Amino acid sequence: MNENQQKTLLERVESLLRVNLKGSLGIADGAEVQQQIGRFLDTVAEHRDNLERWLVPQWVVLAAGLGTRIDPTGRINKNLDVWFGGYNTLQLARRYLPGNLPHIVVVHPSLVERLRYPGSDKIDPEKADTLLGPGAQIVAQPAPDGTGGALRAAIPLLEESDADFIGVAFGDEPFLDAALFVQTLLAHFIHGADVTLCGKIPETVIDKGGLFFDEEGLFQGTKEWYDMTPEEQQWMWKRLEEGCAYTNTGITLIRREAALQRLDSLIPHGSKSEYHHVDLIRHCYEDGLNTYAHIYRGEITSGINRWTNVLTGQERLEKQQRESLARKGIRVVPGCRVWLGEGRYSLQPQVSLGRCCQLSGSIFLGHGTSVGDYSCLEDVSVEGQTYIGSAAALTDVEAIGSYIEDNPIPDAVGQPVKGLHVCTDIEHCKLDHVWVGANTHLRYVEARYTMIPPGIALTNKRLGLIQESRDASRWLNTDYLPGIPVSQAERRLPQLQEQLQRDWIAEATRDMQLRRDCEEYISRFLDWQSKEERWGIQELTFEQIAGVLCEIVRLATGCVDPIWHKKSPGMRWDETCDIPQQLQEFLGQKPLQVVWLIGDAPELPREIRWIHQLVTAGHRVTIAAKSVAVLWDATLQDIERYLHYLPMPGGAWRLMDTGSIILGIDLHQTNAAFWNTLINADLIIACGSNRHTIRGFRNECVLSL
């Protein structure tokens, strides 16, 4: 190959493996690096026609161990519940596996239960991505029968794979360097092996899997310490003294067909009757296949099998981060825990930090982060494409997918909503997809799916679609949505936007500039793109969007109910409306607990008249509405204003706040008192927008009017 051909081939290989070979080999000698890559490319060149199939391994990540040394009760999963900054053990263990194929992740059956939708057999992809990282093909290992049993559990997916080779890695090894995997991969192909095991030089050979070679130096396979004869154990001790004893890391590359043909030949080991996948090497050796052992000579930190290893590995990762920042001229306070993420799995700090920036406490900064001059960050978690501008101070803040900018905010802020803008300070705030403008002072604020306009101060507020933490799975269908999916109501969004501009915004303020600002905030929200470049509001229902947009207008203008005077009903009983046929049958029954979800404000006279008849018949009625205004939905204030002039006759009735802020009612968002009333009701009557949002509630006595 000439130089240009070699360069083209190298670029193609690195694209398939998603790795920079020169930067990841972990070899200081530049000449040796070039030699290794050259030998590798010479081998690769022979397989240009089927390069991806031949080169890219199908990785199987073994993560079915619970880690009872970490938590004897088994409630903490060592692979998923031990976190380092924004990444757990499994995500870090997967980050350096070369290749572009989805990883097969073998897990414990109890983990599969954690990943499912409540009350369903289907796996929630959002939960899976959060805990396992994206692109995982999940397989449950039915019995705790070792690494060989894990591979057996993955057989159906391995048979479907197009890869020529299988790679075996472990979900509890978060501290392995990229060099270990890259060196093993190159050695495997350079030597034309059918199976390659990565070994290491150990500190001891006791309780380790030792590597054994025949008289000609060919790799025979491994043996566990308890399987060795006294003579073999003595031989391992002697080799250790001579500096040439090698033990097993378990990282393996094996030809897929060779593995599938021999998995049934594995025999159980020890008192636990576990199958070991590395026994495949001995079967390959005995069948005359090419077996090879690559000895990794870099530093290896043990995986997550006890807390001492967790602390040791964590200290190593943090040290790497501090040293990297120091080389960039950043002052990191001694004892500071810094985590910098670039991409989903990498901890390589691809960030720009200000010259006089000081970091203290526990800091996690997401990928693409830039921290401005003179900033002080303490105990801050920021994820996504985040910019923290000068003169900003943050304390105990979690902000996801956000932008934090300094003062002044430039005029060109008409970008899609991407997050958070501040110029002063925020404290104890949890913000998710939120835009906060200049000159804003926040304290103890939790916000989700809303936009906080500039020039306001908030303290002790809950904004947006905040869900109450209660188990509603017994009462809600698994596919419950509070309203109509946006995909089915897209044509209504322009009408909603027009209505807000014509009615709400125009009535909320006479300030023309503020009106234009509100209209711009709404347009930005509706056009917002998530960090995955999806239409952000696609995750919401039409009713949720209506609630959030009304909240934005309230925050921007300070007007809590712009059209209250338009929706006030006439101050008289509606004597003409007969009770609906659906309610007639309940009038003569024994007293029932009734919850009436009030609909549109103009319909109040009619609905109150019907409620009056139920109360007169002896039923106990809870009249439920929201306390915040959303379009024409009746609020508690509307009802109270109506009943002030025309009181309802005596009887067993009461008013109750649903706690919801959307059009209709969000059953995930109700307060505890209302939820308890709802689930104990004998009859639930839903009017107006509530008819759409009550669907999915598992109660046979829901009546829509």
Note down, in words, how this protein is organized.
- About 4% of the residues have low confidence.
- The protein is α/β, with parallel strands linked by helices and 705 residues long.
- Helix 1 crosses helix 3 and helix 17 runs antiparallel to helix 18.
- Strands 5-4-1-6-10-7-11 form a 7-stranded mixed sheet, with helices on both faces. It has a 7-stranded parallel sheet with strand order 12-15-18-21-23-26-29.
- It is elongated.
- The chain is built from 24 helices and 35 strands.
The largest sheet, given as strand count, sense and whether it forms a barrel, is: 7 strands, mixed
- Which value, in Å, is the CA radius of gyration? 32 Å
Structural class: alpha/beta
Task: Kindly report the spatial arrangement of strands forming the biggest sheet.
Answer: 5-4-1-6-10-7-11
* Percentage of residues in strands: 15-25%
State the helix count. Answer: 24
**Kindly, what is the distance between the CA atoms of the first and last residues, rounded to a whole number of angstroms?**
78 Å
- Shape category: elongated
**Rounded average pLDDT:** 81
Report the helical percentage: 25-40%
What is the β-strand count? 35
Uncertain regions spanning at least 5 consecutive residues: 342-349, 403-424
